[in-house]
Amino acid sequence: MAEPMRIRAQVQGSGAVVRVLMNHEMETGQRKDPNGRTIPAWHITDVTATLNGKTVLTAEWGPAVSRNPFLQFTLKNAKAGDKVAISWKDTRGDTRTDEATVA
Amino acid sequence: MQTRRAALKQGLAAAGVAGAGGLFAAAPAHAFNKSAFQATSVQDAVKALGGSGALAESKDVSLQGPEIAENGAVVPLVGASPLPGIKLLAFMVEKNPNTLSAAFHVTDAVEANFSTRVKMAETSPVYAVAIAADGKAYFAKKEIKVTLGGCGG
């Protein structure tokens, strides 16, 4: 199972800025191992963000997103105490969900 | 003996698991769009993402990134658009093996303003593309020089 994400959600004006740092290899499928065999692609494909259980953002990622991906987005209406949850799914079908509270 | 409270707790936990499982099932329309990520030109990628009509360069889309990226494996990008009715914002790197890097589906609850980091194989124009609800696509372009490619070889 994958390592936990680091999520920080900070109030800014009437909304909140959410920063997420995920732990993932994001293997492109372009690299070769020392024996010349292609290392199969293994990357996050779907990212979902929810605010208090309601989906506010979905994203699709290709292998060109960097290793240990960083994501920042801005919620228009969020207040301290709101719950932000981030989920991702990768090409192997693994998923991970982590939650943070807006502060 | 199982108290009422314990039974309630168990029920809640089960509901939580079901809820998490349903997260992706609830949004099948935005499941990973394979054809878009296999596109090898900006035009094709925009088309696969649901954009129609011609691409137009627009001052209302902004793209920030470094002039020179020393390490192509980690190129920080910020894309934003204040235009109303933007439903999708995507980062594209023209000379990567596959053009599309990431696509964000915008809802009313978030601003069309995203930062992430992408890999770049070589020096290339980078695009932030915003697709409006009516299918019109607007973009901002920036040439980013790469001294060390990020796709390995």
**Molecular shape of chain B:** globular
Q: How many structural domains in the coordinates of chain B?
A: 1
Mean pLDDT of chain A: 92
Q: Quick one: CATH class of chain B?
A: Mainly Beta
Assembly state (oligomeric): heterodimer
- Portion of residues in helices of chain B? 10-25%
User: Strand percentage of chain B, roughly?
Assistant: 35-45%
What percentage of amino acids of chain A are in beta strands? Answer: over 45%
- Shape by Cα distribution of chain A: elongated
CATH topology of chain B: the name is Immunoglobulin-like
Low-pLDDT sequence parts of chain B = 16-29
Write up this protein.
By secondary structure, chain A is mostly beta strands. Chain A has strands spanning 6-12, 15-21, 44-51, 54-61, 70-75, 83-90, 95-101. Chain A starts with 5 loop residues before the first strand and ends with a strand. Chain B is built from three helices and nine strands, in the order αααβββββββββ. Chain B has helices at 4-25, 34-38, 42-48, and strands at residues 55-57, 62-64, 68-69, 75-80, 86-93, 100-106, 110-118, 124-132, 137-146. In chain B, strands 1, 3, 5, 6, 8 and 9 form a six-stranded mixed β-sheet that branches. The N and C termini of chain B lie far apart (63 Å). Strand 5 (70-75) of chain A pairs antiparallel with strand 7 of chain B. Chain B: Residues 1-31 form the signal peptide. Chain B: Residues 48-151 form the Ig-like SoxY domain. Chain B: It comes from Ramlibacter agri. Chain B: InterPro entries: SoxY (IPR032711), SoxY_sf (IPR038162), Sulphur_oxidation_SoxY (IPR016568), TAT_signal (IPR006311).
Question: What are the defining features of this structure?
Answer:
heterodimer; A: 103 residues; mainly beta; 4-stranded antiparallel beta sheet; 3-stranded antiparallel beta sheet; 7 strands; B: 153 residues; alpha+beta; Immunoglobulin-like; 6-stranded mixed beta sheet; globular
